[in-house]
């Protein structure tokens, strides 16, 4: 038996600035044909929900129109960025998180499916010092310990690192060392079989630290090479994860019919011009 998860990410939805809604709807149509068991959005659901609550409301409305069950975790555009990110446009705060919770419910969760435990986390909480960060860490540790013989698939907005856990680079593309330490401390000696993330708007598969790391592309747009290194495939789409009841798994990129491979540089009204 195979439990099929469709991972979408970085949908960047807004009613006021609906630049990327058409791509989301085309991918929704593809999901209706694919009929996965579950859809998981790994964050940046809204264009700018950290500043504009109406973006969160519109993102929820569009997700509710999907014909399959879904779960979400927030990204930096939904609740603000980690406090350890230098020069962040918006930083995480409790008010932003409260708005997200009103529209999408829990920002961390775990779900059991045959042979697997799926754990979704709010990456923006790490290193915040908030009581919610401590509570999330405790619940992650409980979920990991309670998984027993189940394999673990972790869903997190940002990649944990580029190539290894000991990286000490501080920036905004990956979890910074302090945030990564918070997460891995909660996991203890266990490492997930699958780490599924978004944020970088590229599809990539790598093996590191005993885990398979799969980056989902954005459903909305790619970021040009002049502003972001090319780690993998820069193309709009989504990912299918086949989680098998024998504990094995496989992931694949899906290019949805009718989507446009949009470049964010062509939409200065979204986040400002890219120089």
Description:
The protein is of the alpha/beta class and 275 residues long. It is 26% helix and 20% strand. It has helices at residues 21-34, 53-64, 76-79, 94-104, 131-146, 177-187, 268-271, and strands spanning 2-8, 38-41, 70-72, 109-113, 116-120, 151-155, 194-197, 204-208, 211-215, 238-244, 249-254. The strands form 2 sheets. The protein has a 6-stranded mixed beta sheet, covered by helices on one side. Strand 8 (204-208) and strand 9 form a beta hairpin. The N and C termini lie far apart (49 Å). The model has no long low-confidence stretch (mean pLDDT 95).
Name some characteristics of this structure:
alpha/beta; globular; 275 residues; six-stranded mixed sheet; single chain
User: How many individual helices?
Assistant: 7
Strand content: 15-25%
Q: Cα-atom Rg, whole angstroms?
A: 17 Å
Q: What's the total count of β strands?
A: 11
Extract low-pLDDT stretches: none
Name the quaternary structure: single chain
The residue fraction in helices comes out at 25-40%
In whole angstroms, the N-to-C terminal distance is 49 Å
Quick description:
This protein has 275 residues and is α/β, with parallel strands linked by helices. 26% of the residues lie in helices and 20% in strands.
């Amino acid at each position: 038996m195979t439990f099929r998860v469709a991972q979408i990410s970085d949908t960047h939805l807004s009613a006021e600035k609906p630049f990327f809604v058409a791509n989301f709807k085309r991918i929704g149509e593809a999901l209706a044909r694919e009929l996965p068991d579950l859809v998981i959005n790994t964050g940046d659901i809204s264009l700018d929900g950290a500043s504009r609550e109406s973006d969160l409301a519109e993102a929820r409305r569009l997700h509710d129109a999907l014909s399959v069950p879904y779960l979400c975790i927030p990204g930096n555009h939904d609740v603000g960025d980690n406090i350890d990110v230098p020069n962040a446009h918006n930083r995480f705060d409790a008010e932003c998180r409260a708005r997200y919770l009103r529209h999408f419910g829990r920002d961390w969760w775990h779900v059991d499916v045959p042979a697997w435990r799926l754990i979704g986390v709010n990456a923006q909480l790490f290193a915040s010092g908030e009581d919610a960060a401590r509570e999330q860490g405790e619940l992650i540790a409980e979920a990991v310990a309670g998984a027993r013989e189940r394999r673990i698939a972790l869903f997190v907005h940002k990649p944990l690192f580029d190539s290894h856990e000991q990286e000490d680079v501080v920036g905004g593309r990956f979890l910074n060392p302090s945030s990564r330490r918070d997460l891995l401390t909660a996991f203890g000696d266990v490492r997930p079989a699958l780490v599924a993330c978004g944020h970088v708007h590229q599809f990539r598969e790598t093996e590191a630290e005993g885990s398979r790391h799969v980056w989902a592309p954005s459903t909305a747009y790619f970021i040009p090479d002049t502003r972001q290194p090319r780690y993998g495939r820069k193309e709009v789409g989504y990912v299918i994860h086949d989680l098998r009841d024998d504990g094995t798994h496989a992931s694949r990129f899906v290019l949805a019919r009718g989507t446009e491979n949009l470049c964010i540089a062509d939409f200065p009204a979204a986040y400002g011009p890219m120089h």
